[in-house]
## 1
Amino acid sequence: MVGGAFLTSRPPVPRTGSSVGLNMPNTRSEQLFADAQKYIPGGVNSPVRSFRAVGGTPVFIDRGSGAHVWDVDGNEYIDYLGSWGPLVLGHAHPAVVEALKKAAEGGTSFGAPVAQEVELAQLICEAVPSIDAVRLVNSGTEACMSAIRLARAFTGRNKIIKFAGCYHGHADGLLVKAGSGAMTHGIPTSAGVPESYASETLVADFNDLSSVESLFAVHGEDIAGIIVEPVAGNMGVVPAADGFLEGLRRVTSAAGATLIFDEVITGFRVDYRGAQSRFGVTPDLTCLGKIIGGGLPVGAYGGRWEIMEMVAPLGPMYQAGTLSGNPLAVAAGMATLRELQRPGTYDRLEETARRLADGLKGVFARAEVPSSINRVGSMLTGFFTPGPVETLAQVEASDTEAYGRYFHAMLDRGVYLAPSQFEAGFVSLAHTNDDIDRTIAIAESALKAAFEV
Ligand code: HOZ
């Protein structure tokens, strides 16, 4: 109904998964999900959480500590979701909790400048060499949306290139052949995006430089920039092939277009200085989020001074936000970044994630389940396809039904993975060798149960 009457009664609760059952909910999670569906579309505030890709009822989380979470029914899980990336220190890290308490006692929002936001901006600029100046926003979506507006303002051009299967948040124009939940739910190009917006988004193939060059050959003079995840994380983890990022840098520089790295996931995750430092390719603009907010809503975009000075109030590109630079988000972000500055942090992340990936590779091989594990630093995905997995087409060859069975077998045994094949898993500094070894042993038994091997 458009512009019609108010709803006078709640819509019937849709049944979305087998575990909802025919009668009464059995668990507190099932009860909450039944209630949630009366008030929230699909019962969730972000689609992938609904478990539609894997079936069943989402577990509602009660609390987290370190590498573990507990659901509202008292079940404990080793967590590899990590709130989709921000919790590189694990849940409720004491330094973050302390910083939050202190910040909250001083007031939660002012809509006016605070000293702490300057500190976080300075930390970011010092960490990421390509960022001379940074603007804090509230989410990765806002960061990418704003960076694209800025690229357009700076170049005076309209078109943007994105890659099929990459996800940069849910702004109009970026929901074209998008990854993550859009791909998981079979709506890579969202309804409600006007054709006139979508037509400004050109879509190329990840890890295929020739597909980019072809677009530049036709539209070169009107391309404002390329936005790319330097490690794709929203179709599952797919690393950039050798020379791909360098090729994007070369093509954009030659055409006077901007190169935007969406480091919302990879920023401070694969290296303290970002994927751009790990792979030695310098973008013009960088989008950040997740880790820089330590688990609170935050995002940021930054880059070369001559581009950033176009942002209002210095320049004509407008972007604003009541909660931007929020003292709580900034405090949690700074506490997280300071912990990450400790010596050996990234070596530990690398080692722990390697132990997990190697162990899982062995388990899958012994079970003779066709699979391929992609890992970059502490982000990884196990694809249910023999691999290699270097392109979206290879990602899409994965057996998602098998993933669903494996996901539930792991969940039942106390390991929480992303409820979709097309997402990344995250290892944190809180994961111990014992957590990893238990996970590998659980995977062995989960595979047996899921595939009866
Ligand atoms: N788009 C997020 C994963 N890449 C999912 C966000 C959520 O459901 O919290």
## 2
Amino acid sequence: MTERLEGEAGLSRAAELLRAGELVAIPTETVYGLAADARNGTAVAGIFEAKGRPRFNPLICHLPSLEAASDIGVFDGAALALAQAFWPGPLTLVVPRRASSGLSPLVTAGLQTVALRVPALPLAQRLLTAFGGPLAAPSANPSGKISPSTAEHVATGLAGRIAAVLDGGPAGVGVESTIVDCTGPAPRLLRPGGLPVEALEQALGAPLNRATPTNDTAPSAPGQLSSHYAPAKPVLLNAAAPPPGALFLAFGPGHETATANLSPSGDLREAAANLFTLLHRLDAMPGTAIAVAPIPNHGLGLAINDRLTRAAAPRG
Ligand code: AMP
Ligand code: MG
């Protein structure tokens, strides 16, 4: 059963559920977000499971203030200027992630950068303050469906798959946040959204670079994989056992001698929560390659296999 929450009691209940690692759809001024504790890998894996998302793309983290955001990411230059000009508001900034961020690597899909936003809706601000940490939240709709701008829309798409919906009335902006990448030499527009590009350009005093379309399964130039982490070692898929010299990333019971195991009990949610942490760990160990056991291709296994297939794809 998905709880419908509202008012003061609803706000405390939402914060309590989120602290317990549950999924709660929350109102923001852009669209309703499907929120989970960004420091809890299993909770974050639940977002992908509930949405039926076939890919682990990085998620936006929501904070109550620039001060709180500065504990997670590094703000200087254009990032600081844009945050000061437009937060709280419908602007997401991609900045370098602090090593001490405490985020689950699933939130950033294993990247060293992080997408951060301070929402303007007072109810969202108060929930973030009551919760007391970063909330990872993509739009609260099943994958491939349109973004929800009311609690009713959320319930239609996700009832029974999430713990609760906090009703904050209709979302005023109705489209997603504008995303600007501030990790390169000059800020770059990654996604147009609720904050007009003209407003950004006026604040920057310069035209904003636009993201160039990329084909992320077959990158043709270095840097095109910037929004995707891939291990440096070759990755071998569907391995029953590792070839000589290779490391073995197992899944399920009966693999006591494996280098690591995504989930000894064969739980896909646990495997998703561990995926990036273990890929990074094995990538840093001596060994010629990372051989990965077969992962069942259903539920979260689809997103795990998507990530592993990209990691195993030939690279230039
Ligand atoms: P959604 O989760 O649907 O709101 O989409 C979030 C968007 O932010 C996606 O387009 C992501 O690719 C983008 N994004 C999130 N984090 C990063 C990051 N660290 N680097 C680049 N893009 C990001
Ligand atoms: Mg979405």
